[in-house]
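Morning - zinc ion inputs below, output right after.
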Amino acid sequence: MFIFEQIMIQIHRFTFNPFQENTYVLFDESNECAIVDPGCSNTSEQQQLVQFISGRQLKPVLLLDTHCHIDHILGNKFVYDTYKLSPQIHQKDLVILQNGMRTAQLYQLNYAESPLPVKFIEEGDIVSFGNSQLEVLFTPGHSPGSIIFYNRVQKFAISGDVLFRESIGRTDFPGCNHNDLISSIKNKLFLLDDATVVYSGHGPETSIGYEKENNPFL
Ligand SMILES: [Zn+2]
């Protein structure tokens, strides 16, 4: 008789801040969790995040940013203060993180300055929580240091603002590069299995196969 312990990542999505940004909490049977792109911008959104984590008795062990645009990092400081986690980012987005306060003022957002990373992550790195692992894919274009967190076993990717359902990331900000974005999607994301579910930084989830067929920008 074989007994298989089920290893399964669950993904919870919050939609926070005036940009309707998706914040994800990933957790598994160990109850350790990763917080990806915390966009909480006020006390109510901070409480939603904390109540979910404490309600499920989760232990946050990773703070990950797919990229450092302001809507994705608004809650970095709160997560740092609450769970003592520093953000892990790609080094090429450090300058964007460092410009966060200026950007927040431009958009008149209430922003507590993010702590700086103590660790950078890049293509090929593996980040772990509990019994689970995520591969880091480097997918520049929407920002110079955009990365994706990919789980090969369960076939999903946390894609940040690289790919959306029937859309792609904007490339009209400083540091964006449209050709890089298209190349990241076609040469990285579209090499993943068609069944891979894509959890985007804005809007609903999609899949690689669906976007190959239906994305009008590709
Ligand atoms: Zn962005």
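Note: The chain has one domain: 10-214.

O.
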